[in-house]
Write the structure tokens for this entry.
Amino acid sequence: MKKYLFIVLLVIISSCSTDDSKPKEGQDTGLIGKWKLIEQYADPGDGSGEFTPISSNRVIEFLSDGTVIINGVLCYMSGDVGDKETGTYIAITDSDTQFDGEIIPNTCNSRFARIYYTLPVSGNLILWYPCIEGCGQKFSKI
């Protein structure tokens, strides 16, 4: 009887799993929705860069199905508005990184192009683009 109980317990335990692709706690509800560009960051190479206000109608939207839509180019930093581009996003659950997730654009020339995002406690979304020097954009939820 103990042998059967052990086997049943073993089956139950081995059938449990975790899904590491799920967003971090609180991120799934905080990230979903539309965000408007409010500031831009460009570092000249000496670490003195800072976010400065920008006037733009650029909006990025995160959908609950893992899709992201932006009204302009997604492959590189720009304040310009244009045709909609799309991509997918995933949360990064590795605690060794400074980013909360990554966006994989559908339209870039390189299939390795990634835009990383952070959602700090301040509540503003920051996109970090691939640049030689640091560059990013700050968005406010609308």
Remarks:
- Residues 4-28 have pLDDT under 50 and may be disordered.
- The beta strands are 33-42, 51-53, 59-62, 67-70, 85-91, 101-105, 115-118, 125-128, 135-141.
